[in-house]
Write a structure and sequence with these properties.
Radius of gyration: 15 Å
CATH architecture: 3-Layer(aba) Sandwich
Number of domains: 1
Oligomer: single chain
CATH superfamily: HybD-like
Strand content: 15-25%
Strand order of the largest sheet: 2-1-3-5-4
Helix content: 25-40%
Length: 160
């Protein structure tokens, strides 16, 4: 049985950990979206570091999801705060997506979701600083300045 949070046609996941500086980007985008009126078929999830759990559940045949939008930091050596829409092929080039704490690559789940017919979009923001394992709450100015544009990109993808 799939969780209630996954019973939407469109799901927006914010990934990352807000106690490691720019890794909190996904959380901050989700926080902004939660204050907006979105269509009834859109679910918003602060996935934190638990995205594999949610993505595994999407493979259930009871799942109604047709589109997923992931919001997360990336490292493509771009200027900090730069937003980039990634394809599933790009995901295998991101260390964060090729492994996780349970040796379950996030990229594998996203590729399988796409292969099963789910539209997959990843909106990445180039981080300036990720402090893990040291705790630092709050985004750098460059990443914080990209939040509104990231929200606009999510809204565009919802309406495509």
């Amino acid at each position: 049985m799939i969780p209630d949070s996954l019973k939407y046609e469109i799901l927006v996941f914010g990934c990352g950990n807000l106690i490691f500086a720019d890794d909190g980007f996904g959380y901050e985008v989700i926080s902004k979206l939660e204050k907006m009126e979105l269509p009834e078929n859109v679910g918003i999830i602060d996935a934190g570091t638990g995205a594999p759990y949610y993505l595994m559940s999407l493979m259930d045949e009871e799942c109604n999801t047709k589109k997923i939008i992931i919001v997360d930091i990336i490292d493509f050596q771009l200027p900090p705060g730069t937003l980039k829409i990634l394809s599933t092929e790009d995901l295998t080039k991101i260390d964060k997506y090729t492994f996780d704490a349970h040796d379950m690559p996030l990229s594998d789940y996203l590729i399988k979701a796409k292969e099963s017919g789910i539209d997959v979009t990843v909106i990445g923001c180039q981080a300036k600083r990720v402090t893990m394992p040291d705790i630092e709450v709050g985004l750098t100015d460059e990443v914080k300045a990209s939040l509104d544009d990231a929200v606009k990109l999510v809204l565009e993808k919802i309406n495509e």
